Amino acid sequence: QAQDTETFNAAAHWVFGYLTAAGGYLEDTFDLTPWQSPDTIMAQVTQFCEVNPEMPLIEATLAYVRYLYPQRLVAQSDIVEVRAGGRGVKIYEVLITRLQEELAEQGFYSGEIGAAFDAETAEAIRDAQRSAGIPVTGLPDGRTLLHLMR
């Protein structure tokens, strides 16, 4: 068990280093993982490796970079705190627009795209969260973004 944990931690550090380097060298990339948490990243890489057990970690991570690339942040964006239900999360401002677009595409949001995070956006997130069976917060937390931004 301890060896498995050490191996996982070593792999996680390597993956994060690789993603950081890739983000620095890819054209038109400000942030390759603009909303993904370390837990999200490792859960996705682990799942991919379980489905592709013969693939070396470097190839699996490169495949993950190709998966992340269309979702990357291409330019710097302010980080803003959005609040709902007395709680808040910090998110790149440009991701609010992406989130509203995705919510609208899935039929949860009919407000103005590109508007600031408002009560209508929070309600659309709550509706999407209810629909997905995930904790209803009204916030674009990691689990919600993972569900919506696939």
Describe this structure in words.
- It is globular and about 45 Å long.
- It starts with a helix and ends with a helix.
- Strand 1 (79-84) and strand 2 form a beta hairpin.
- The protein is mainly alpha-helical and 150 residues long.
- A two-stranded antiparallel ribbon has the order 1-2.
- It has helices at 2-25, 38-51, 57-68, 93-105, 119-132, 142-148, and strands at 79-84, 87-92.
Layout of helices and strands, plus pairs?
Elements: H1 2-25, H2 38-51, H3 57-68, E1 79-84, E2 87-92, H4 93-105, H5 119-132, H6 142-148
Antiparallel strand pairs: 1-2
Helix pairs in contact: 1-3, 2-3
Write a concise keyword list for the protein shown above.
mainly alpha; 8% strand; 150 residues; 56% helix; 2 strands; two-stranded antiparallel ribbon
What's the short version?
With 150 residues, the protein is mainly α. It has helices spanning 2-25, 38-51, 57-68, 93-105, 119-132, 142-148, and strands at residues 79-84, 87-92. Helix 1 packs across helix 3 (57-68) and helix 2 (38-51) crosses helix 3.
